[in-house]
Write a structure and sequence with these properties.
Strand order of the largest sheet: 1-2-9-3-10
Order of helices and strands: EHHEHEEEHEHEHEEHHEH
Shape: elongated
Helix content: 25-40%
Strand content: 15-25%
Number of helices: 9
Largest sheet: 5 strands, mixed
Oligomer: single chain
Amino acid sequence: MAVVPNQPAITLHKNWTPFVQYLSKQLGVEIELKLYEKIDVFLSETQKGAADLIYSAPNMFYLAYQKQKYVPLVRSSHPLQGQVFVRKDSPYLKVSDLKGKTIASVGPRSICSVITRHALLTGQGAINYNSSFSGSTINVAKSVLLGKVDAGVTLDTSVINDAPEMLSEFRIILRTEKIAPHPLAAHPRVPQKLQDAVTRAVLALDQSEEGRRILKDVKLVDPIKANFKRDYSFFTKVDLEGPRQQAK
């Protein structure tokens, strides 16, 4: 099972080990947890089909789907939504005010960057802008607060979770449409019987307090069955490559 490196490896190992051990026991097969230091390596490996099971951001799952036809099995029922925010005292009141300005995000391939970039470039009043990559939600927020950039991009839950004390300093000027969150997916070579068993096992975790704690640690809260057409076909119309470089 390959897990997207969206946290330090030591944190991912701690959070995912109980989940993998539970699945191994329920399925009667040994599942090995595969962690990566770099997103690029994770993307390369999943697009080659190296892992039988993957947990990935929606945009990265779609890239793997294009190459390998991974099957989304389960996901959290809580959708993701991107937002663009400015300082409370900023003169920018609407998206069109940010034309040609610099907007910070975590990185070019982060899901918040992808869906907000899509909204900014294709939505009503679409604009061109300069990109700046800050590496983390907190750094994005700090860049906006310190006036290093004109606006920031994040998921609606990220600032709440990572920097709640900063919420009073920001004004949101755009919210994207909501999308399905990270799926747990299986390579087509995994037998259908085993795919179904994974789905049942994950859904069963939601029936106990201990199971819900395990699900929370791997961000599969309130899990439901995933469906490719319903949940992830959105990405057929999205530029997943993003800006080639950030603003000077």
